[in-house]
Amino acid sequence: MSADALDQAFRDASARITGALAARYRDLDLAEDAFAEACVRAAQVWPAEGAPADHAAWLYRAAQRCALDILRRRRTRERLQPEPPPLEPTAEDMMADDANLIPDERLRLIFVCCHPAVAADARAALTLRLICGLSVAEIARAFLVAEPTMAQRLVRAKRKIGDAGVPFEIPQPEFWPERLDAVLSTIEIAYAKAHEDAAGLGTHASYANDMLALTRVLAELLPREPDVLALAAMIRFAEARRPARLDEHGAMVPLSQQDPVRWRRPLIEEGERYLQRAANEGGDSSRVLHAAIHSVWCARRSLNDPAPWKTVLHLYDALLSVRDDSIVRLNRAVALAEVRGVAEALADVAAIDGDALVTFLPYHAVRADLLRRNGQMEAASSAYRVALALNPGPAERLWLERQAASLQH
Length: 409
Description:
The chain has helices at residues 3-25, 28-49, 55-77, 103-113, 120-130, 136-143, 147-164, 177-195, 207-221, 226-240, 265-280, 286-298, 309-322, 326-339, 342-351, 361-373, 377-388, 394-406. By secondary structure, the chain is mainly α.
């Protein structure tokens, strides 16, 4: 079994098995450590003896044994009494069969990590680490903070969950509102990690289908919550466009240049139904407006239809009134360039705090494109080099290289 295949098997099983272990043993650190040890054992055994038919079931059973070994070692170090007999089988034991490792278990752990006992700025981050397996560096980039700062937040958050005795279960509906924003932020960022790789070849590509499933579950649990419905709509609009995101050479195709004929209409129609339900509930939040921007694009039927830049700019203006942040301003600048000109868009990008976005690849890509169109070729070339140094996916790299090469002509 190749190293890449091993890595993919571990990633596919990580979140669900970690969630099951955490639910059983009520210890997030133990769950992470046990799964890590199970992966080490698999890496030693599978290449020599052959991989099992059910990777997740093997890893779950191995992780359970590792968890008991870790507990024994802890008790020995602490000079406690010998370990009691193994626990009676629980619902988590049934999860050894991969068919039973369902999204609801992942959702349960998301709600646990988003408990109000955890600091607000760490809830989504902790969930992304445990549920999605994002690295500390990836999470730090998503939240636009330094990596050491994020690492400290995660340590404090896990300690708080243990100290507070947070129950590993979905809370009663009356307690959902206090956790919902962090839950939705987690899903947003997880999907963004899948979406940022147009080729769908990255290590986080599987999140796309996972987040489609989770938003469907949430919409069933909260059928009148506008933000839930809007997020379900947005993910469907974005995912519907995936077939048109690559050209014949494997390069990324910008949204305005994608052929709408290739978009998945059933997903768009499903997204429209969710968005309409959100609007019927009186939703005017940033998530509803964000979904509306996607909806406007998805209304195109062919490349002969004009790009809806004016409507998109109007919606971004409305979005700024409820969510004024650097990323919204950056996206607005793209529309602004098409409606009012590149010079005004460049001025707006220059006013954004570039230090906060120094590791955010789209910032450098947008800035480079605007500089190119404004005739500032040397500055554009420098911006493209910075973007390429941030390790874009293969499709994004090919597009950026093509744009950078065009500066020479």
